[in-house]
Specification:
Helix content is 51%, strand content 7%. A four-stranded parallel beta sheet has the order 1-2-3-4. Helix 1 runs parallel beside helix 2, helix 7 crosses helix 9 and helix 7 packs across helix 10.
């Protein structure tokens, strides 16, 4: 791997899914975690939230193909240490890892120059009265992502190590909370909410 060619950077683990990333982070306690947003089974936002909840001092750099304002705001609210666009050069990524390891924050240059404006918008949003914002529990987000990825109840139950009846209850609660009454609608919501990227969605078998 290119990063290990740097000499001062050692890759101690690689995860294929967001759930695996959480498990490896807790087991290996790396100095810096580079987290892809588009992760199957558990997206990078939720994986980051779970890691920081159990390991508040963890240093996480979000890696994404997108620099959308809402994505960056979510990363800032999560408390990640950096946000790097995938198209950014390898040299920038290795520099980001070193800076974050030192305790600094690092953002791709195109994002860094927008930070003052984004922080200002976040402060204004926090000052607004609370509306009827729909709040999903961590488990509901996990179930919603698995539904949107085309998994059947049986597969979701096996993945989360819960019963099929529990999955059905979560699915029902999601539909009631979101006022959405079919799987296609839940999938569209998950994509629009950034819980899953459209490229991950697969048609149920």
């Amino acid at each position: 791997m290119l990063l290990e060619a740097e000499g001062d950077i050692e890759v101690v683990g690689e995860a294929q899914t967001g759930r695996q990333a959480v498990q490896l982070a807790k087991a290996l306690r790396p100095a810096v975690i580079v987290m892809d947003i588009a992760m199957p089974l558990l997206n990078g936002f939720e994986a980051t939230r779970q890691i920081l909840k159990s390991m508040p001092a963890a240093r996480i750099i979000i890696l994404s193909a997108y620099s959308d304002e809402e994505y960056v705001k979510r990363v800032l609210l999560l408390g990640a240490s950096g946000y790097i666009i995938k198209q950014t050069s390898y040299e920038v990524l290795s520099k980001a890892i070193r800076e974050v390891q030192k305790g600094n924050r690092f953002f791709s240059p195109s994002i860094a120059k927008r930070l003052p404006e984004l922080y200002q918008k976040l402060r204004r949003r926090e000052a607004l009265p609370r509306g009827k914002k729909i709040s999903l529990s961590s488990r509901e987000v996990e179930v919603l992502q698995l539904i949107a990825e085309g998994n059947a109840n049986k597969q979701i139950a096996a993945e989360l190590d819960i019963s099929i009846k529990t999955v059905e209850k979560h699915r029902q609660h999601l539909m009631e909370k979101l006022n959405i009454h079919d799987t296609a609608g839940l999938t569209r919501y998950a994509i629009a909410a950034g819980i899953i990227e459209s490229s991950i969605h697969k048609t149920p078998e």
